[in-house]
Each structure stands twice: as C-alpha cells, then as structure tokens.
Amino acid sequence: MGSSVEETSSMSNIIIPQEWSEAANTVASSASSPPVTFVCGPKNSGKTIFSRHLVNVLLQRYERIAYLDTDVGQTEFTPPGCLSLTVIDKITPDLTIPCLKTPVRCYFFGDISPKRDPTMYLKCISALYDYYEKEFNTFDLSGHTALPLVVNTSGWVKGIGFDILVDMLKYISPTHMVKIRISAESKNLPTGGFWLDERDDASATLIEISSARQDSLKRSVLVQKDARLLRDLRIMAYFRQCFPSEIDITTIKELARALAAHPPYEVPVSCVKIKHLHNEVPSSEIFYSLNATIVGLAVSSEDIDHLPCCVGLGIVRSIDTLKKIIYVITPVPHNTLEKVDLILQGFIQIPNCLLQVQGCFSPYMASNVLPVN
After folding, report:
1. Which residues pair with residue 328 across a beta bridge?
2. What is the pLDDT of residues 275-294, one digit of tens each?
C-alpha cells in the first residue's frame, strides 16, 4: 500500500524519504482509533509536505480525514488569514500544488501571523478542535466512524510562538506528535515531550524526523518558495473562482481585467456589521479603511464561543457613501452571501500584481457612485 503513495509523490518531483514514510505508516497503523496527529517544526522544515503525505497514507485506510490548518500565513486549503477544518476524501497526486477546498468550519483571523492577537488565535483553534470532536470524532449507530485528524502548524516555534504551540498541544492532546528537525539545531524545538508537565500523562507517541532537503542522490526533496508569493497565488486562485472554469484566464493580466469587468454584489450597510479585527477604527473612518481591501464574509454565531463562521472572502471594490452601499467582489454563491451579516477587516492585502497591470484599470477604487452592470 505504501509504495503507491511514494510513486505518486515521486511523479510530482518530491522524493519522500524512507524516514518520512515510516513515520506516516506508524501513524496509519496505530492502534489509536482514530489517530490525532500534530505536525510541528521550524520554518521550511517540510511540515506541510509531510502533512499532505500523511493524509495520503491515512486515506489508504480511512475513507475521510479531517485536517486542522493553524498556519494563517501559509494556509493549505483556504486563502491566507483563515483558520480552518477541512474534510478530505481523495488522495492528492501532486504534493507540490496547493489546492483550494471548502472547509467544514472556518474562521477569518485576518492576519498572516498570530502575533497581533495570540488569545483570539488560540480561541479559534480551540473552537475548531471542539467542532471536530463534536462532529467527526464520535461513533454512532448508523455506522459512521470517527475521522483521523491531522493538525498542521506554523514555523513560529520560539518565544511567544513556542508558548502558543504548547497551549495548542495541551488542548488537543494528540495521540501522535511528529516533530521535524532541521540542521540548524538552535532553531529546533526541544527534544522529547517539551509540552508536558510532570503531572501530565505522556500518552502521545513522539516521532522525530529530519527535514528532507536532499535525498542520497542530492535530488531536491522540498520545493522552497517565496512565502509572500505563495500567499498572493492563493489569493488570486481564490478570486479566480468568481469565473467559470471554462473561461480562459491564465495570466495575472487576464485575471485583473476579468475582475475589473466583473459585476460586484451590492451590500447595504444596514444589513451588515463592520468590524476591524486588530485595530480600533473611528466610525467616521470605517468606510475609508474598508475601501479596496480584502475582507472576511461571516455569519454571526449563536454558539457558546460566539465566533462568527467565515463563508469566504471578498474584495471591497468601492463604497457609495450616499446610498450606503458596499460593492463586493466574491466567489461566494448568492444564496450563501444572503446569510452574511458581518464584514471582517484584517490585514490581508490585495496582491500588488493585480493592482499594477499595465494598461488595465484597477477594479478597486474610491467612488461615491459605481455603476453595476
């Protein structure tokens, strides 16, 4: 069974080392049913690639896998700035290609790092794990079985980042902990069960593996890419969904032109509450701060944690301050958009490459009146 995943991974120019395969097989063959696996390590150590490989291996034994993405800067299945729980039911042939999926639960954190608000960051992760426990970690009489969970983390493992990691581990209490180490020893996490107190039950299986930069033939194993470029590509891929797949949009210029011509939704200000997630904005400045930004489109929650569920992102194309209408470009379907009663503003930026296409008018502007086709 394991060879098929290794062959597929090799086809995508990623060589999965034997140490990684053994680690994934240890999790998949675990007596823990289902396993809850926490993957951590410093930046550029291969956490995401290993997590995706682990999901592929688990899918050979389980029909579905739950994936908790806690890396707001380098998200796996959503645009940047989101914390999400996604259920996966198909093997990913190419581990190098990011792919957008619709999560079963998503929160818009609105930043690419937890630094501005670690408390809210941890609150969102705890709520996502609680949702997994409630919806996907139970057995019922109809034969539905609990799903394994893979938790992918960011590479911020020092200072406050270390404290956040420890808090996450204590809350989730994984059955397996996969710790990836790099050659720069000072950047690694401490050895052993660093998150456990003396009174804690050390029940997790700890697996330590090395980062896979090269194989024995000096072939590249991990694909290193610019973090900001990856975020921009994910944002562009997300808003590409505004258009049918059969429409030929293959370049940034074509996407910019298509967005410029795309009719926005009209959102009456009276129908939504506007909230900045990380700054206090005077009421007189809200429209100015909101214009030409990427926002989270959310639905108020009646759950005990009161965290609004994010149904997608939108670009505020312009605002008619006289009619009090916000014009939003989004791939969120109309029937879902009708439920949105919160517009959340953070610090997720429109890619500069969409704003600087020569010979193309930017679709994001300040205007009191904007005709809608």
Report:
1. 265, 316
2. 999 888 888 788 888 888 99
